[in-house]
C-alpha cells in the first residue's frame, strides 16, 4: 500500500490518528478573536476526526471540512453534523467556490507534498479564500527529529515516514509558499506534545492578499 489516501484511511480505521492537542483553542484563539466568527465561512483542511471543526462550530462559524480519508470524513461528519463535509485533496478543491471562505485552518495537513505540490496547495487555499481572509496553519519544522526530519531539510524532497511522504519546512521554504498570495502575520516555532515525544512545528497566520 503506497497511496497516502489508503494509509490515512487505514490509520483512522485502526483509531491511530485521532489525537488532539487543542492547537486552535490555544494558539489560534487570539487570531480567531480578531476574525469575523459568527455566521462566517471557515474551511477545515485535512479535518481528521473533526476536532478543529467542532471548535469552529462552537464559535459560530459555518464550517466546510475536507479530508482525503473517507473513514476520517465519516467520523468528522458524525461528530459535527452541522458542518459540510467534502472528500477533497487540498491541492484541488473544485467543489469550493473561489473567494468563498473567510478563514482556512490547516492543522498538520499541509506537509505531505514536494515543492510543486506545496505551492499548489497554498495557491488553491488562496483561491478559495476571500481577499483579506485568514489562513491559520501548522506544519512540520526542519528540526522535527522525533518524527522523521532529515539532517538537512533545506531541499524539497519529501521523506517517507511510515509509508507517507512528509515535508519538513524551514522558514524560507514556508515563506516561499506564502509569498505570492499572502501577507505573513505571525510565524512561530512551537512544540506539540500531541504524539508523546516533542514534535517541532511552525505555526503561522497569514492574510490572503487581494488578487493582482
Ligand atoms: C496529522 S493529521 C491532522 C488531522 C487534523 N487536522 C487534526 O489536527 O487532528 C493529517 C490529516 O491530513 C489529511 N491529509 C493528508 N493529505 C491530505 C491532502 N492531500 N489533502 C487533504 N487532507 C490531507 C490526512 O488524511 C489526515 O487526516
From TrEMBL:
GO terms for molecular function: S-adenosylmethionine-dependent methyltransferase activity. The keyword Transferase applies. Residues 43-136 form the Methyltransferase type domain. This is Class I SAM-dependent methyltransferase. InterPro entries: Methyltransf_11 (IPR013216), Methyltransf_Superfamily (IPR050508), SAM-dependent_MTases_sf (IPR029063). Keywords: Methyltransferase, Transferase. GO terms for biological process: methylation.
Amino acid at each position: 500500500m503506497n497511496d497516502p489516501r489508503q494509509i490515512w484511511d487505514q490509520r483512522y480505521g485502526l483509531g491511530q490518528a485521532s489525537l488532539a492537542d487543542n492547537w486552535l483553542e490555544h494558539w489560534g484563539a487570539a487570531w480567531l478573536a480578531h476574525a469575523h466568527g459568527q455566521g462566517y465561512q471557515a474551511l477545515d483542511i485535512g479535518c481528521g476526526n473533526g476536532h478543529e471543526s467542532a471548535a469552529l462550530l462552537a464559535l459560530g462559524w459555518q464550517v466546510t471540512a475536507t479530508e482525503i480519508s473517507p473513514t476520517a470524513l465519516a467520523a468528522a461528519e458524525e461528530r459535527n453534523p452541522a458542518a459540510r463535509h467534502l472528500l477533497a485533496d487540498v491541492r484541488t478543491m473544485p467543489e469550493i467556490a473561489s473567494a468563498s471562505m473567510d478563514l482556512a485552518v490547516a492543522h498538520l495537513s499541509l506537509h505531505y507534498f514536494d515543492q510543486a505540490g506545496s505551492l499548489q496547495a497554498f495557491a488553491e487555499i488562496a483561491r478559495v479564500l476571500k481577499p483579506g481572509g485568514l489562513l491559520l496553519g501548522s506544519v512540520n519544522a526542519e528540526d522535527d527529529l522525533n518524527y522523521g526530519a532529515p539532517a538537512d531539510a533545506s531541499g524539497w524532497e519529501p521523506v517517507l515516514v511510515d509509508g507517507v511522504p512528509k515535508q519538513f519546512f524551514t522558514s524560507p521554504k514556508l515563506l516561499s509558499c506564502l509569498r505570492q498570495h499572502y501577507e505573513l502575520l505571525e510565524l512561530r516555532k512551537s512544540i506539540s506534545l500531541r504524539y508523546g515525544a516533542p514534535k517541532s512545528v511552525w505555526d503561522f497566520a497569514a492574510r490572503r492578499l487581494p488578487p493582482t
